[in-house]
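so my prof wants the structure for this chain in the tokens format not the other one, which i didnt know existed until like an hour ago. anyway here's the sequence
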Amino acid sequence: MRSGGPGAPAGRARALALGSAVHRTLELCDLDDEASLERVAAAAAQEVDRPDVAADAAALAAACWRSEPVRAAARAAALDPEAVQREVALGALLDGVVVSGAVDLLYRDGDAWVVVDYKTDRAAGPEVLLGRYRPQGAAYALAAEAVLGRGRVREVCFVAARAVQDDGAALVVRVPVDDVLRAEARREIGAAAAGGRALRPDELGTDDPSGAPGQA
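here's what i got, hopefully its the right format
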């Protein structure tokens, strides 16, 4: 969990701590009980030594919890607990490049998988978010498939916690995983190979138009 560290600017440190608390809350909360969010968020805020972010963490986590991909994951878990995984570590060798990172939520829908990634950066419209996160979606899909070893990822859903809709749910940006997206991922991996470096999906694109990395 990232809390910003002692040398981080105050605003940046708070944003990192808040993002970490939101992710931790969604990892540990009850997918069937929205009331669990406040309690879990308070504990998560304590973990990052920032109890002042507890209320905001609970509110942002609630928006994500209400989103359709998370509700779909809850329904999948009710039928088969093994169909849903949270905070899945990714580490795969693709075309000679180590691709590593973590998926916030992964669930099986029929014979395919859906990847869900929570974003806590500033709110933006769907087109901006799609352009910002599409490269990440490509890399997440290939890495998740390599780790799972069975089935294909059908879709990557980016859940924008700060872009709350009229129903109280976070905006969802859906990235279908098709041949075009897979080709984009292979190009990114090829560029990493040419540079002799490993690749993290959350390095692709940016969570913030200023270029500062956000919470993946």
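also thought this was worth mentioning. The chain is about 45% helix and 25% strand.
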